[in-house]
Structures are given as structure tokens and as C-alpha cells.
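User: Sequence in, structure out. Go.
Assistant: Echoing your sequence, followed by the C-alpha cells.
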Amino acid sequence: MNENYILHKYLNGEASPKEIEILRSTPEYADYFKIAEAARGFQPPEFSSVGNFEVIQQNKVKHIATPALSGFNRVIRIAAVMVLIVVSYVFISSLSSTVRTDIAQKETFKLPDGSEVQLNANSEIKYKKRNWENHRSLSLAGEAYFKVTKGNTFEVETPQGSVTVLGTQFNVFSRDTIFNIKCFEGLVSVAFNDTLIKLPAGNKLKVENNKLVVLTSTNSIEPAWIRNESNFENASLATVLKELEAQYPITITSPKSIANKRFTGSFTHNDLELALKSICDPLRIGYTLDDNEVTLYAK
């Protein structure tokens, strides 16, 4: 009898005991018989088409919703970081940049448009880098020499007044009640106390206590202080001494009896003894120097 046929009948539950015995005794089919016998012990799990469909749908929703929620959160985080970066940039850009010099210190630097600034001792400049090309404006306390590149209006604001130019070279001195402007190239507009003066190259002006006291020509081609020398013309002694304290780390004490003296001349920034003599000798003033303490007295 054909064993394949008998195996087929056995798998379909149609083989007789005699045919089953033939399969058991045939080595070639004995393994098939053992596998078939073991498989008969397997019980398939209970199947519910409705229940299984609901489970599949729930898993499908979770599978889709979870990445969507995660992706949304990721977008929110990225957006928050970008907003923080933009806000930080705007905030930082809106801050003023400050350049400050101490006593006996000078500083040269360039503004965003390439304009050069030489800052005298004990002075300060503040400006905003953001949108500088369209709004070239800064504030000055002290003294500075400007070499301005051509472009939009360039403005220097001080407590005593303002100076406006397009492209030129000029010096601004602004301390206490004194406001001095010297124009070395081009033309500058000087505004103070509701007054506007156009100052061409080779001219200077001096404002004291909001009043114009000097408007004349000058032969100098650059400020004397950038050569380490301070120049004065009919300046009050108080102004001269204050400038001396800006160039040297000293404290000066003087009596009221010499407060009204006026000084025309200069002093060096490199030798304190020589500077004191340059100021005191023409005014017939005596002085003592003890470490960093200078005491003046009338002779």
C-alpha cells in the first residue's frame, strides 16, 4: 500500500488501526507520525473577531497619536528656543556699548562704521551698535577727538550741547560747565542752549555756563592732548587743575584766594613736576607735592 496515501488518510483522521500501524513501523514515516501526534495536543486560543478588532484600533490610535504629540512638543521646544535667541539678540543689541578711560589713560578705538575715536583721560563714550549705520549717535563725557567717515549724520551729545557732522575731523571737550569744539576738517554744527553755530575747518568755539565766550580761528591741525599735552587759552584755574587731575593720579588742594586766576599755556602729561611748574610759575603760585597730594598756595 502507498505510505503517502496512508499518511494523507491519517492526517485527515480516516486511517484504520492497521494503516496506522504500518506508518509506525515504517522508519521513513515514523518521524512524520510523531510530529502529527504532538500537534494534536495543541489547542488554538479563543478568537473573538469583534474584541480583536477593538484592540487593533486602540493600538493604532496610540501608535499614531504618540508620535504626533511628541512631534508637537518638539516643535514647541524649538520655537521656544528660537524666541529666546531672538529676544536675547534684540536685548543685547539694544544695550549701550561703553568705552571709559581712567586717570592718566587714553584710548583709541573705531566705531561700527570705521570712524576713529581717540578718547582722552577720565572720559567716557556710550553708543549703540545696533542700526549704527542709520543712527550714528553717541554721548560723551570728557574729551575726544573724532575722525568721522562719510555717511549719515554723526552726532555727539554732551550735557552742554551737541555736535552734528556728516564726515569730518573735530575735537569735543565737555567737562562741568565747559564746552569746547575745534573743527580740523569739514564742517560741524554745534547746538547749545537754543543756539546753532556752523563751525568750518580751522575754527574753534568755547561755551562756558551755556554762553558763547570764544569763536575764532585756530592754526592747529590736531588736538594737543593726543601728543600728551594739554593746551589752554584764558581758562579758569579750576578747569586747568581738573584736567591735571585727569592726567595724573593726584589730588589737588588750593585756597579760595587763587580760584579766580586764569591760565593760558600748556602742561605735559609725562612729567608731573614739570606740569606743575608750567601751571604755577606763570601764575605765581607755589605748591608742595607729597606722594599723590598736591597743595597750592599763593606766593
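User: And one key feature?
Assistant: The radius of gyration is 47 Å.
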